[in-house]
Amino acid sequence: MSIYDTLNDKQKEAVFHTEGPLLILAGAGSGKTRVLTHRIAYLIEEKGVNPWNILAITFTNKAAAEMRERVDNLVGFGSERIWVSTFHSMCVRILRRHIALLGYDTNFTIYDTDDQKTLMRDVCKLLQIDTKIYKERMLIGTISHAKNEMLTPEEFRLQAGGDFHQKKIADVYEEYEKQLRANNALDFDDLLLKTVQLFQTQRDVLEYYQERFRYIMVDEYQDTNGVQFELVRLLASRYQNLCVVGDDDQSIYKFRGADIRNILDFEKVFTKAAVIKLEQNYRSTANILNAANAVISHNHGRKDKTLWTDNEDGDKIAFRQFDTAFDEAEYIVSDIKEHVEKGECDYQDNAILYRTNAQSRMFEEKFVTANIPYKIIGGINFYARREIKDILAYLKTVDNGQDDLAVRRIINVPKRGIGLTSINRVQEYAAMHEKGFYECLKGADLIPDIGRGVSKLESFVALIEHFKVDAKELTLHELMQEIIDETGYIESIQAESEIEAQARIENIDELLNKVVAYEEVCEEHDEPVTLSGFLEEVALVADIDNLDENSDYVVLMTLHSAKGLEFPRVYLAGMEDGLFPSYMTVTADDPDELEEERRLCYVGITRAQSELTMTCARRRMVRGETQYNKMSRFLKEVPLELISTGNKFSGSGKSLTDHADHEEPERKTDYQMARQAFKTKAFAAVQQGKSFGKPAGGKLEYGVGDRVRHIKFGEGTVLSIVEGGRDYEVTVNFDGPGTKKMFAAFAKLQKI
DNA sequence: GACTATAACATTTTT
DNA sequence: TGTTATAGTC
């Protein structure tokens, strides 16, 4: 009995087909990860391929880690030498070694979308672009697409021809590139593009990697874009052992430049390609799968395939329409609670999927008050938080002095009396002399009209230079701690807002933990701990990478983030025309956009293993105004016999809408009761100080006039205590720093 | 230069 | 609605 006996015929065929180009069309839940991992195992164990020669590219770090682990379990040894990584981290690894050949410094920084935006603002200011006409977002998007098509600014300009607008954008593109280079920075698209350019211009480098990666596998191939295709094509062009796995029905990143033709035309580009279809679904019940099939069948221009399953019918798909998004969230949360309490499932078996991140807020409130563990994936990325970006900007400045963006971010954070005028002076001076911002700071006394600002600038430079020395002597986490301490960052955020300070400090602690974790991983793998390495890891994490299967919480995320995952119980919330499919795509004249939304719906449905609930609301608040939505057209594409609207007040043979109308009066009372519960619960939470941070017991151990001690400010006398909604606001006259207002919950004052 | 009040924009999705 | 950029005031 071998490990391959558990595979079905098609899967075996895919595993055993190791030489030459291969396209695996793998429907949702058809076991494609199993095929990929077994294929790697087969290459190593049966074909004697050196693990060193295998490259597997996935979409997220999470998928990469999972694949490595599963290969590990199959082959035991040697798997750590396989390259399993995402496109972006693979490129960074290659670029760190060779980017000098393209005229960059090896410790380049990676700009995320926020940085891009800041940079674009600067560019627009410099070129005097009217951002009313040329929106920054649009400019970034256009440039990103150009990069995905591998167009240089010059080529873009040529293509623009006589078009005034396009020529203007070409100007912006050119300047944007210039600035990136001056900052020794690459944006996400550059990581791919520069790697391709490296391969195109450096024959020997390309040959080295072609020789190394004799067997290449690409997961989620339907979501690759132009550069990614070229990258893979270049790498595989020598040995042609390229195996791509994908599902055209799950292509949902067209807006980001993914080109579905990569998968549709695979056989045209690789003429000798074999094609294997995996059509048996192992994941979902027949009802769920049939619903998915029915929905996706409304799309045109698909690769021909029909997903089938041996699984039993299972429950019908539940559908519920509510009055408001509030009711919707209420229902879903209590439904989950009910199932868990009955012992039918754990929290982690449940996922709530929605179209837009904004929808998560409502659920979050409900979960907090219901005291149910939950995890929201996406939304505001951890690394996009202000305090994290600040600290990282310090690290970037220490690591790569050319990163002007980082320097300017922190030059007056915490406040050190360096204002806009000074910054602008330096900026002008730097632009005039074509020098870096930080470089100019070092010779600040040479800058005209800088006046009394000079001493402040000099002490800032001294601080950074001090950190640079530290960087050589201290470990990474010590350096970060040093930066936090020396800059007085914690005190500064405490001073501006006590309420937020606590969360921000927790985030900073979390960042410190991540540094330590990074150091440990490096140690394990016997790799050097570098600042650049940490910063790059930080730049390339997706929020989904933080999803932990071993923690018992309900998972909330967008449909996009859910791709590649599966859950026993899935809720698709906000199934409304105008929300999903989104208003943009409904009104767009391009029918392709609606098809992409439908594929998104297909992805959502096929995430469910055994139970699927779809919900919608008649009205919901969007951007401050109430929107009235009809239920999603996608819902109507699900055959009625697969749907249950059902429960106590369901009749039979009625249309979906009729049912929902009947439901309403009943729900109202439910809703009101729930609302009542919400209020009392929320209050209880305050009392316990659990979610809002009031001191346990609710009483303070000190009163007005008492002497207290604060961890940072030292000793002082309490002037007043004001009962706030959530906490006590305490005013203390400290002996040293003077009078401070703070909240009792995290001031942690001690009576003396 | 720092702080505050107002206006403007955003919401479709993100490696 | 909520955040963030800008203008205006101290």
From TrEMBL:
Q: What class of enzyme is it?
A: isomerase
Q: Which NCBIfam families match?
A: pcrA
CDD domains reported for this sequence: DEXQc_UvrD, SF1_C_UvrD
Pfam families per the UniProt record, alphabetical: PcrA_UvrD_tudor, UvrD-helicase, UvrD_C
Record's keyword terms, sorted: ATP-binding, DNA-binding, Helicase, Hydrolase, Isomerase, Nucleotide-binding
What catalytic activity does the UniProt entry give for this protein?
Couples ATP hydrolysis with the unwinding of duplex DNA by translocating in the 3'-5' direction; ATP + H2O = ADP + phosphate + H(+)
Q: What is this protein called?
A: ATP-dependent DNA helicase
Segments forming domain UvrD-like helicase ATP-binding: 5-285
Annotated ranges, domain UvrD-like helicase C-terminal: 286-564
User: Which family does the record assign?
Assistant: Belongs to the helicase family. UvrD subfamily.
Chain positions recorded as ATP binding sites: 26-33
